[in-house]
Amino acid sequence: MDGPSSTGSEGEGRPRLPIVGSGNSSAARVLDDWFVVCSSDELDALGAKPLSTTLYGVPIVVFRGATGEVGALLDRCPHRNVPLSDGAVEGALLRCGYHGWAFDAEGVCREIPTLCGDPEGKARVVPRFAACEQDGVVWVYATPDVEPVREPYVFRWVRDSRYHSGRETFEVDGTIHAVAENALDVPHTAFLHKGLFRKSGAGNRIEVVVRRWHDRAEAEYIGEPRPPGVVGRLLAPQGGVVEHFDRFVLPSITEVEYRLGETSHICTVSALTPITDTRTRLTAVISFRLPVPSFMVTPVLGPLARAIFKQDAAVLERQVANIERFGGESFVSTEVDALGPQILRLLRNAERGDRGAPGERGEPGVEPAHEHRFFMEV
Length: 378
What we know:
Blueprint: E1 34-39, H1 40-45, E2 51-55, E3 58-64, E4 70-74, E5 88-90, E6 93-95, E7 102-103, E8 109-111, E9 128-129, E10 131-134, E11 137-141, E12 164-173, H2 176-184, H3 189-192, E13 205-212, E14 216-225, H4 230-235, E15 241-249, E16 253-260, E17 264-276, E18 279-289, H5 294-326, H6 340-351, E19 370-377
Antiparallel strand pairs: 1-11, 2-3, 3-4, 4-9, 5-6, 6-7, 7-8, 10-11, 12-18, 13-14, 13-19, 14-15, 15-16, 16-17, 17-18
Helix pairs in contact: 2-6
């Protein structure tokens, strides 16, 4: 049998494969910001047991001390590297389950059983993540051992007594970009969620205005009739034209807002947490103010949200699997993909530390850095 030719490279002259993995990924790591790691109820339900989680794949242990303060530490005892989440909370300290080393919420070692000397020491300090509890959830800052440069997002409608709010938590395959785009994407709703939300072939031509600041992007849908399905009937039983805004706010917040006049308003805010680069926790808060008693609405919105999410989760799981199968992303977009490209741009900029100056962010009165308009059918 002849060996490889000495005059050409191995494989020369063979047909090239039609598909070559790009290695592209929309995963982005925004480390100078806050992410929801659990609800207050989840943490309280554990009692003396700490909560184990991950943020961008980094193991973190979250616990509540006797004073009510929430602490978040790297989930590794510096002594023999056993997970601190295997231990227990005693008073204000988190005690390792192996040798009993105990740490406060700052990560400082306060007790070492059997040691006669001082338990404190630089090498015995566990990296600490800033933690904040507000609006019924626990936020953790993604970079350890630093003072946060900004405050966590505020669920503003939760704090408004005119609104009734409920919360759902899910986990789903997908990057922050993929999950955020899915939450804010209009075109897929007529197909994937047909009957629950929209229907295909309705033929309603509406105008879309996309705006981007340095810290957020939004799409305003002008002239949109009441969506068919359960949500539309709740929002506007008599029909009409709705105000519809979709927004993405760094580092990982999505807002879907529907309003009809002064009496009907539904907003779903989702805080997305990167468990890993391709696995996301979604904390969805649904707030509404409607001319219908809340006890009639809540039994409908909860199951509806879960049904929609189940469909989204299934397609996102298939998307992740197929991207891995082909060795990377290879996306093609059109203008009706209103926010996906804007979200990716914001994430990439934020990953590099570019969040814009105060006068460049999406605050009242600040002009967007980018705006464009187009028409689409819904």
